[in-house]
Fold each of these.
Amino acid sequence: MDKGTIGGIALAAVGIVAGLLLEGGRVSQILQPTAAMIVFGGTVGAVLVQFPLHQFLAAARALGGIFVEPTQDPDELIAELVGYARRARKRGIISLDSELSQIGEPFLKKSLMLAVDGTPAIELRKLMELELEFQWEADEKIPQVFEAAGGFSPTIGIIGAVLGLIQVMQHLQNIDEVGKGIAVAFVATI
């Protein structure tokens, strides 16, 4: 999901809230914790049935990455790579062994560890290409988690509406409970 899509979603949410407020409503009317528990909890549960936990957690981490700027500047990474190349040329590739523990970027660290261990260049290239391919395949699965959640959430919202209406039917004699049940029903649908 790119930042334009996120901006569009945020703008739509603002429009919905503004419309509610213009009609004399209150934001608290759509902030029903029970409805949120039903929809979000049910959606997460349905997604966890379809995907392994490690894939779900990778998607959650990726979601957090959408809202945070990358911490490493690409120019700094290039300068770091050039520095390693210069040191390796002047002092030999083994001289980089002492710096491996300080490298935070996993792909770079693995590449340099293999190079320091004496892996031939052709084999090193093949190994790192396989690593990139593996990472690409793992990254391709992340959107599938969100697509599944988008497919499940409307159904779970309808289930929340039905549960709210069941609550209403069980408490028709108590008007306060009827109001809560209808609120859960309509908010879960939204």
Amino acid sequence: MASGPLANLGIALSEPEAPVGLEQLRLRAPRVAVPSALSQICASDDHVRACHALGKSYSDVVRGFRGRFEHPPDFVAFPRGAQDVELVLEWCSDERVAAIPYGGGTSVVGGVTPEVAPSYNGAISIDLRALDRVLEVDEVSRSALIQAGALGPGLEAQLAEHSLTLRHFPQSFEFSTLGGWIATRAAGHFATVWTHIEDFVESVSAITPAGVWTSRRLPGSGAGVSPDRMLAGSEGTLGLITEAWVRVQPRPSHRRGTGVRFESFPQGAECVRAISQSGLNPANCRLLDAAEAQMTMAGDGSSALLVLGFESSDHPVEQAMTRALELCREHGGESGESDGSGESDGSGRSDAVSSWREAFLGAPYVRDALVAMGVLGETFETAITWERFGAFHERVSAAAEEAVRLQADGTGRVFCRITHVYPDGPAPYFTVLAPARRGEEVEQWAAIKRAVSEAIISEGGTITHHHAVGRDHRPWYDRQRPEPFAEALRAAKVAIDPAAIMNPGVLIDPLP
């Protein structure tokens, strides 16, 4: 009998299967050896190669669980600073070896997998874990210079010494890095205003095969195409981000949060639209459908749940919460756990919201358990404008449910929540749970992923709102982007990466 986070899945669990042990690993022999000039910062043992062979998608977890490391890096470099990065990239360019930037390794789209064409002599991972410091804090301008390898908890702990925060908390926060966030245009936990990491970026430094790419530190600029925005979302294809000046702020001291129930998900979505267009800018405005609310033990399955919250480091937020709850009531919402009044000296969370939050934060920790117990569990996310949302949600949900029905004998489940909201549209986030076919999990999920991705692109959504492109989303990203832009990106890559060593296969194919 399942308990804890697994109790409410609604999926039959198999007897746990044991993963392949480290002693059973049989990796492909390295195609290139560590050069003597880099020997002090590189490692090529099986353990370190296996640890850098995969990301953290469901397919990656399954492959790792079964010891399937088809594309391990030939070795891993651990640069201690920008000069080491320059030496590694110079060697890669000279030897025609692919260079795969590696932060926390949390990619769920194949962004860190060293899978490259046979035309390369090999592939290495460049792990930035040693570049993990907050180098400088400007308390006047409220910004900080942080190295790209800093993990979320580490950079927040260093900023806390100055009573400051970056306030960027993706679900992978504990295991991902600032450089990875910028390279993948990661979105944080907060629903409105500053949601993507590029909103926090003041300037970026990167090492490219053609030289150092450092932008001027400015609060804003209208001087042509932004060098910072060009690196944001480049996914390691243009260069390796080494540090960035980012906007920071005082830690919030005023918070209010509550849960609001709606009879239906579409009814709740209309309320979310009204809130997103009101100028109230809540910190949290997540709408869970009834099934997800039940699955996370935040509801009984009879109603959708809006997780609503406000916070500030400067002023009380009761007035904003009061107005937001008025909008909820105007749209048929019922808030039974908090009326939004009074000063909050704690989290201000309701029991339902706390249950959802615990399930949300605990999700990364149950992935291995789900695989061991024969459960296929994965997510996909997108964004669409409000006037198309109703039909879009209906059709994408239907495509996902049909794909699950075909791949899991009709016994799977599809949930949806809105995670981020803009005045012109939401970012719906879908979760799929289904019984896995032992030994065929990767193929099973690939079939569901293809069906869902086709529906998203056909209905006019984006193939990704914040999970990046990587290798997994390339076929649909190629259809989403304008072709003249693709040609411009290829030309830019030729100019700064003439040997095409930087994360080949992600975002763009090099010119022949």
Amino acid sequence: MTAAKVKVGIVSGVRLVRESLTLSLRGRDGIVVVDAVGLDPEGIARITAAAPDVVLVDIGHTEPAATASLLKVSCSQAKLVAFALAETDDHVFACAAAGFSGYVPCEGGADELYGALIDAANGRMHCAPHIAAAMFGRLSVLFQQRPALAALPSLTARENEIIVLAEEGRSNKEIARRLRISAATVKNHIHNILQKLQVGGRGEAVARLSTTRLV
């Protein structure tokens, strides 16, 4: 028996970029490109219907946070990988904060692109040494200075657990495995969280979580 292939969706506002990325990934072991679309309503409907495991997003032609928020709603189970990212601390951290699970730098080649998709599908992220060093530096400051997390108003203990895991960029399936509950139960909790906080998506709910911290 052969292992199931990782289903990859491609999102870019430029047709030539979509076609080039598709060609670069064609025939690669372990993955299959299920669709390559723009960010128009038709494209979002198509990528939602394709139900990819990983979505490769050309952020050279879009705003990362807004795009991540849109895709997290339509493809809540998918990991997001940023393509054509300037490999600086601020750009990488901004993508991570927006919900991306990995990235391919502007100077990355076909092999690096392929590796980033496989890593994202398996819960890993490869990054340059200076990015890893900066990340550890910021985490050190964060954990030394940040006070305890305050619970979001009106949420149950379980809902607070779920929104914290969502902030880490985990999909519904990952949250379900972590908490040992069904994905359907997680989906119901997410729905209740959005209603209670009166927000339109996971990204907005996570933003509310950030406002409860005093940095």
